[in-house]
Design goal:
The protein is α+β, with helices and mostly antiparallel strands. Helices cover 58% and strands 20% of the residues. It folds into four domains: 6-92, no CATH class; 97-197, Band 7 domain (Tetrahydropterin Synthase, Chain A, 2-Layer Sandwich); 199-238; 242-318, no CATH class. The chain has eleven helices and eight strands. Strand 2 (60-66) and strand 3 form a beta hairpin. Helix 1 (6-29) packs antiparallel against helix 2 and helix 4 packs across helix 6 (165-180).
C-alpha cells in the first residue's frame, strides 16, 4: 500500500512557487508566451523531482521495480527513484502482524462438529519473497491457516482438544510456519481462542461430569464408612474385656441422646442387656410417658380455652 509523502509534496510546492515567481517576472518583461513556457517547464520539473523523492517509515520496506523488473528493497528513511522508469510495487510492513481465522462445523476424530477460533501472530522476514513469490501473502496466510486448523481438528479427539489447547497451538504453528516459509514469512505463535461444541453435547457432558462427581462422592462415603467400621472394631476389642467401660459408654450415649431429644424410646434388646441398661429402660419409658401425657393435656386445655394444663396427680405420677 502506497504511503503519503509529505516531503515530496513540500518540494513540489516550493519548486512550483519558484516557477510562478519566475514566470511572473518574465511576463512583465517579455510577454505571455515566454512566461507560460517557463511556468509549464517549472511544473514538469517540480513533478519529476517530487516523484523521485520517497520516504519509508522505520517499519516499512519498499519494493522498487525498474521497467517491471526487481531492482532493490529500499527503506527505512529517504531514498530516490527514477520517475516513469522505476516504481514502487509494494510497501511491506515488517512489524509483527495478527490474523484471525476460524473453522466452522468441522468434525473431530470422534465425529463431533466443533467451531474453533484462533489468532495467528506472524512477521515478514524476507520482503523480497513476500512481494515476488506470492500474489497476495495476507490472503495466502489466511487460507493456509484455515486448512491447517481443519486438518488438526480432524486428527484430534474432542477431549484432547478441550484439555490440550497449548499442544494444538504448537502443532498449528509448526504446520503454518512450514507452509509460509517459502514466502519469507515467519509464524511466531498461534493462539486458540475458543472451542464451541453443540448445545446438546454440552448438556450431555455436563450430566456426565455430575454423574462422575456423584460416583466419586459415593466412593469417598463408602471408604469413610469402612474406616469408621475399622475403628469401631478396634473399640469393640477394648470393650470386650472391660464391661465397666462399656456400661459408662452406654450411659454417656443415653445422656447425649436425652440432652438433644427428650422423647427417645429404648426398646429392650440384647444390646440393651449387654450394656446393662435394663433398669434404665423402664425409667426412661416412664419419664417419656409422663412428659407425653402432660403435653397432651396442655394441648387439650388450649383447645378448650384454658390458659394452661392442670398439674398431674399422684396417681398419674405412679402410673406405669
Amino acid at each position: 500500500m502506497r504511503k503519503s509523502n509529505s516531503l515530496s509534496a513540500l518540494v513540489f510546492v516550493v519548486i512550483a512557487a519558484i516557477g510562478v515567481a519566475v514566470a511572473y517576472l518574465i511576463h512583465r518583461s517579455e510577454g505571455n508566451a515566454s512566461s507560460i513556457a517557463v511556468l509549464a517547464a517549472t511544473l514538469v520539473v517540480a513533478f519529476i523531482i517530487s516523484s523521485a523523492i520517497q520516504v519509508a517509515e522505520q517499519w516499512n520496506k519498499a519494493v522498487v521495480l525498474r521497467l517491471g523488473k526487481f531492482r532493490s528493497l529500499e527503506g527505512p528513511g529517504l531514498f530516490f527513484i527514477i520517475p516513469l522508469i522505476e516504481s514502487i510495487a509494494y510497501w511491506l510492513d515488517t512489524r509483527v502482524l495478527t490474523s484471525s481465522f476460524k473453522a466452522e462445523k468441522t468434525l473431530t476424530k470422534d465425529t463431533v462438529p466443533v467451531d474453533v477460533d484462533a489468532v495467528l501472530f506472524w512477521k515478514i522476514i524476507d520482503p523480497k519473497k513476500a512481494a515476488l513469490d506470492v500474489a497476495d501473502y495476507q490472503t495466502a496466510i489466511s487460507w493456509a491457516s484455515q486448512t491447517a486448523l481443519r486438518d488438526v481438528i480432524g486428527k484430534t479427539m474432542l477431549c484432547d482438544m478441550l484439555e490440550g489447547r497449548d499442544k494444538i497451538s504448537s502443532v498449528l504453528r509448526e504446520i503454518i510456519d512450514e507452509r509460509t516459509e517459502p514466502w519469507g514469512i515467519n509464524v511466531i505463535s498461534v493462539e486458540v481462542k475458543d472451542v464451541l461444541i453443540p448445545p446438546a453435547l454440552e448438556n450431555a457432558m455436563s450430566m456426565q461430569a455430575q454423574a462422575e462427581r456423584e460416583r466419586q462422592a459415593r466412593v469417598i462415603l463408602g471408604d469413610s464408612e469402612r474406616q469408621v467400621a475399622e475403628k469401631f472394631a478396634e473399640a469393640a476389642k477394648t470393650y470386650t474385656n472391660d464391661p465397666v467401660a462399656l456400661h459408662l459408654r452406654a450411659m454417656n450415649m443415653l445422656y447425649e441422646g436425652l440432652k438433644q431429644n427428650s422423647t427417645i424410646v429404648i426398646v429392650p434388646s440384647s444390646a440393651i442387656e449387654t450394656m446393662q441398661l435394663g433398669g434404665l429402660a423402664g425409667m426412661t419409658a416412664l419419664t417419656m410417658g409422663i412428659g407425653q401425657e402432660r403435653a397432651n393435656k396442655a394441648a387439650a386445655g388450649e383447645r378448650n380455652g384454658h390458659s394452661g394444663s392442670a398439674p398431674a396427680s399422684e396417681e398419674e405420677l405412679q402410673r406405669p
